[in-house]
C-alpha cells in the first residue's frame, strides 16, 4: 500500500507586496514577509503530498512560499534527524519528524479568466501541488464552450424563464495524479462566495444595496439569492465533470473552498444523492396502480447506481470514526463551520468491498482562526480566515 496525504489550503489573497488586489487593499513589504513566513510554516507543518490552494493571485508568490517551506524543512531535518552513524536512526518517530522538500514536485496554476490585472480589481485563481507529478496536462474549467441554461417553470405550469451561466466566478482545476498503481482524478475548486451580488444601474457608480447608510434589507437578500444560485450552478458544472470521470471508472477526489457546509445544497450537488436503504416502498416512476412499486431487484440496482456516482466527505468519515464533531474551518460572528471540504469517490469508502484505498486519519489545522467579530480578527488579513484540512490516505500498489 502507498500512503499519502492530500490537503486543501485557502491562503486568503496571496499576492506580492505593494500590489493592490482589491480596492485599497495591498500588503506592505513587512506584511507580505509575515504572510509568506506564516504560509511556509503551515506548509511545513502539514507536509502534504498533494495540496489544493485557493485565492492565489500570482504563481510566483506561491512558488516563493513553497521554497521558503523547503528551507524551513531542510533546516529542521538537519537539526532533528540523526545521521546514519546513530544506532537509533531507524526509530519510527524520525519518519514523522522528517520533512520532504517539494524540489521535484509539480505545480499547476489556474489563473482566473476574470482577472485582467487591473489594480484594485484583481480576481484570484487556484493551484495544485503534487509530489507525484501529473499525468498529462492539468485542465481548467471556467469559460464554458456551451453555456449552461437552467430552465424554470411556475408551479401553475407557465414558463418562468431560465438562468444562464457562461463563465464560473473562479476556475476549477483538474489534475490526474499517479499514486500507487492508480491515477486519481483530483479537482480543486473555489465556488462562489456568500457575498451578495448587486446590480449597478447604468451610469451609477455603485449598486444601491452597497450603500449601508440607506440599508436595503430586501435588496441585499436578493443579492444573497443571486450568489446562491450562481454557487449552485457552479456546483452543477463541477458535478457534471465528476460524473463523467466516475462513469469512466476513475477514482476521484474533490477538494477546495465550497463556501458552504457539507450538507448545504451546493455541496450535495457536488457529492450526489444519498441512496435510500430500500426502494421497494416507492411507487414506480411509471406506476399504474397503488401497488406498482419497485421490485427488490430494482432496489438493489438503484442503490448501486446511486452509490457509484456518490462522493463522501472525508470529514464525515472522520467524525464517524471519532464519535465527536470537532471540525471547523471558518469562524465569523460566533458561527463556526466547515466551508472547506475533501470529497472521496466510492473507490475509497470503507464500506465498499471493492475499494482501492481508504482514509486512515483526518487532520485539521485551525488554531490560527479568530472569530471575525473578535478584536484579534485583523490577524486574519495576514494569516488566513480558513483552516486547512488534510486526509491521510492509503491506496493499493
Structural overview:
- This protein has 397 residues and is α+β, with helices and mostly antiparallel strands.
- The chain has one domain: Deoxyribonuclease I, Chain A.
- Helix content is 28%, strand content 29%.
- It is built from eight helices and 14 strands.
- The strands form three sheets. It has a six-stranded mixed beta sheet, sandwiched between helices. A six-stranded mixed beta sheet has the order 5-6-7-8-12-9.
Query: What is the CATH third-level topology name?
Result: Deoxyribonuclease I, Chain A
| End-to-end distance | 5 Å
Strand segment tally: 14
Instruction: Label the overall shape.
Output: globular
Total number of distinct structural domains: 1
